[in-house]
Amino acid sequence: LAIERAVAINAVLRASKVCQKVFQNLVTSDTVIKKDRSPVTVADFSAQAVVNTILYESFPNDPIVGEEDSGSLHGDNGKELRNKVLSLVNTVVDTPLGDNELLDAIDRGNFSGGSRGRMWTLDPIDGTMGFLRGEQFCVGLALIIDGDIQLGVLGCPNLPVDIKAPEGERGCLFVAVKGQGAFQRKFSSTEEIKIHMADISSPSVASFCESVEASHSSHDDAAKIASLLEITKPPLRMDSMCKYCALARGDANIYLRLPTRPDYEENIWVHIIRNSGCVLIKEAGGTVADIYNKPLDFSLGRTLKSNKGVIVAHSKIFEQVIDAVQQVILKK
């Protein structure tokens, strides 16, 4: 998958740079206060158009499960938004697109998913509130073949290259191919560094990585699980799939996404492009499963219908973590 790897890196890097341009040009101090999501909309469309264009150039027959369709960009009503997206996309693609080419590129992400053959899954901007706050967000792309994640690439524009130097250089790309290890590189360099989850023998010395938004996962249940595991370190809280990247390189050790209601189903791009995250974690020495210790099933379309929640930890401590999760969650 050397060609797929190179193409995916190129696509995610360019899409990440488009998102940075959107933040620099369209996000103001009033944006978060007013809960104005229009910059997110521009970034979503722009990133999806960039990735889909680059994938189509190399793999025209590969279907893509994306997040957006071009409906709101059509006609006079969509002209202003369409022009914003088009001008941004054309700053990073090799051949400038016209209006119709832009709409076609976005709509290539309309595949519904399935268990056979190749498909790419794309989350053009994961962590919308993190994006608006100027904190953590991510562009995630994965290649799934016959229901099995083979390749994941995650672009994290605001993630520090070194967690110990939070004010230092930012912008990291994470790459994993099944069976080939997990790697990190800077946006500013092509040099790749192999990464691993922190090798710990007991959950008691671990630290959690949690969502900033409490609506995404139950912080109360996580605190109970931490108590059972005798974890005393405060959680590392950040938005988006950057959490997977933080775990993969050893910044934290456990990630829990606990169901907030019984009928909730994860969108496939929400927890996989977290496919990108899943293959990264596995290649870095970790295990990923749901609260019942079942592998995540990405072959059932656009939602993870057969899974509840997501648990991530180093393989050495995973069984202890899942036991604690089940003691807390399954008693409800």
UniProtKB/TrEMBL annotation:
EC number(s) given by UniProt: 3.1.3.7
BP-aspect Gene Ontology terms: sulfate assimilation
Listed Pfam families: Inositol_P
Reaction(s) the record says it catalyses: adenosine 3',5'-bisphosphate + H2O = AMP + phosphate; 3'-phosphoadenylyl sulfate + H2O = adenosine 5'-phosphosulfate + phosphate; adenosine 2',5'-bisphosphate + H2O = AMP + phosphate
InterPro entries: DPNP, Inositol_monoP_metal-BS, Inositol_monoP_superfamily, Inositol_monophosphatase-like
Residues that, per the record, bind Mg(2+): E67, D123, I125, D126
Alphabetical UniProt keywords: Hydrolase, Magnesium, Metal-binding
Presence of the UniProt keyword Magnesium in the record: yes
Any coiled-coil regions, as ranges: none
PROSITE patterns associated with the record: IMP_1
Matching SUPFAM superfamilies: Carbohydrate phosphatase
Co-factor(s): Mg(2+)
UniProt superkingdom: Eukaryota
GO molecular function terms listed in the Swiss-Prot or TrEMBL record: 3'(2'),5'-bisphosphate nucleotidase activity; metal ion binding
Keyword Phosphoprotein assigned: no
Family: Belongs to the inositol monophosphatase superfamily.
Protein name stated in the entry: 3'(2'),5'-bisphosphate nucleotidase
Provenance organism: Dentiscutata erythropus
